[in-house]
Amino acid sequence: MLILFVPAGDEGRVLVPLSEGHGLSAVDGVGAALLAVGGTWLEVLEVRRLPYLALPPRALFALGLLAGLGVGLLIASVFSGFFWWWAICATTLGVAVLVLVPLTARR
Predict the structure, then answer these.
(1) Burial category of 50 from C-beta neighbours within 10 Å (exposed 0-12, middle 13-18, buried 19 and up)
(2) Is the pTM of this model over 0.85?
């Protein structure tokens, strides 16, 4: 996923403007496509193995809430004036992934 760490000056021109200061370049599109494929793969694994994880309902609710909050904040970071929502989003999604991936890998 090193493609997402390309400096803004090297990404090229904005192909799809989203809001002031935000837009998708070709590099962003490639990175988003890779993340979508990887995220979908992780979701499929989680849904298939969910019955075997034996997580209590409160833990499932908390992880779902955390992941939903992360995605919502990611969208908010694009369309709001507060640029740093993406950092909060990455943290919340990262916590959810750090909990679920080891559980899924063990089963």
Answers:
(1) middle
(2) no
